[in-house]
Structures are given as C-alpha cells and as structure tokens.
Amino acid sequence: IFDTQRKFLVALVSLLKGLGSLAIFMFLTAIGTAVPAARTVVFTLLSLTSLASVFSLKHLDRPLWHRFTWNNYKLLGAVIVGLALQLVVVYWPFLQSVFHTVSLQESDWLLILSFCALVVFCLEVVKYFMSNRRSYLM
What is the pTM of this model? Predict the structure, then answer.
C-alpha cells in the first residue's frame, strides 16, 4: 500500500512532529508555562498536525491547493469531526478532568497553527522536489 515516497513522507512527518513537539514542550516549560498547559498544547499540536497533513499526503503528485485535494467529502468530514472532538477534549470541563487538559489561550493556538502550517509547508516542499516539478504545479 505504501510506496517508497509515502514511507519517506510519513517518516518525515513523524520526525517533524516528534522533535517539534518535544522542542515546544521544553520551550514552554522553560519559559514558565505550567506542565498541564504545555502538555495540552503538545497533545493538540500532535492531533492537529495529523489532521492537517492528511490533505498534503492525499496526492503526492499534486500541490495542496489543487482542486482534487478537497473533493473527498468523507475525508473532509472526518477531519472536521476530529477537530471538533479535539476542541471538546480541550474545553469541556468533564473531559478536561478525564484527559488532564486545560483550556488553551490564543497564543497557544497561534503556536499550534503555526507549527501545523510549517509541517504542511515542509511536506509540500518535499513533494515538489520528489515529483516532476513541472507537472506538480499544474
């Protein structure tokens, strides 16, 4: 099912997510962020990077902005449900106690969304160089 390119991209995403999450956790705790808040940021970061990168990994020969990237409504629906569930786990008090999460601040969301964008950007750059560059942009 996975060819060499997909295996490489999955390894790249895993490495970026793993090292990035560790670095962000260490940075947040070093600047005095409470461990539960830093843990919630990393938990959300890992969830959302997975949801965001699935669109980039859908087609290795087309860019993310290509029209066929967004034509799978079941995938789009699954991502929306995943995002909604993540928000419920982070903001609903009952699930906060179950998952040991805390509500995130705007600055946390900015960090999370920036990291998600960085992962997707890196994927797109690697896809560009792995594919026929001319056909990739069309």
Answer: 0.86
CA pair distance 137, 125, nearest whole angstrom: 12
Question: What gap in Å lies between CA 130 and CA 138, rounded to an integer?
Answer: 15
Q: What is d(CA 26, CA 133) in angstroms, rounded to the nearest whole number?
A: 37
**Closest-CA residue to 81 (of 108, 119, 111, 54):** 54
d(CA 27, CA 82): 27
Closest residue by Cα to residue 12 from 64, 78, 60: 60
Q: Are the C-beta atoms of 15 and 126 separated by less than 8 Å?
A: no
Task: Give the CA count within 13 Å in the CB-facing half-sphere of 44.
Answer: 30
pLDDT (tens place) for every residue of the chain, 138 residues total:
677 877 888 888 899 999 999 999 999 999 999 999 999 999 999 999 999 888 887 777 777 777 666 778 898 999 999 999 999 999 999 999 999 999 999 999 999 999 999 999 998 888 888 876 555 555
